Amino acid sequence: MSELEISTPQSVSPQPAIKVTFREYSFFTVSEVATILKVSDDTVTRLFSGRKGVLDIGTPEKLRKRQYRILRISKAALDEFITEYGGVQ
Q: Are the CB atoms for 34 and 40 separated by under 8 Å?
């Protein structure tokens, strides 16, 4: 984990520095996961939409406009899917 210290300027108020900790996250695109699983991009979108660990950063569907989806799939979600459906015992 990497740490970042954010301190306020002395003119504002003399408060201690705030420590923010960032975790290392690894996310895959739909096409990367499709290559790993050897399926189409549409299949990956259908299988992973709504699962825990998947970021859906697209736009919602509107009255006359279809939904634009951008999925980012975490490594943990991919590993969970592979163990769940991959037949690993």
A: yes
